[in-house]
Amino acid sequence: MRKETRLREDQLDRLTAIARKLNRAKRGGERITENTLIRVAVDLLLDRADVLSGATEAELRDSLSLEETD
User: Fold this and answer.
1) Can you give the pTM of this predicted structure?
2) Count of CB atoms within 10 A of residue 1's CB?
3) Dist CA 12 CA 1 (whole Å)
4) Residue 4 phi, psi (nearest 5)
5) 61 touches 68 (CB < 8 A)
């Protein structure tokens, strides 16, 4: 199933950098892409849904103890 989302430029840059780092460090296996990392992040969010609360993006981030973004 396909779902599109808008990511900030800094998020895309970091995803690309993380994917490259992980790919350089591994030997064989499937390629790690930005989409791979996004799916893992969604799984993490779903796993922590019981503590998720808030009415704004900042409040949601805070409920997960995530740092604020600029």
Assistant:
1) 0.86
2) 2
3) 21
4) -95, 150
5) yes
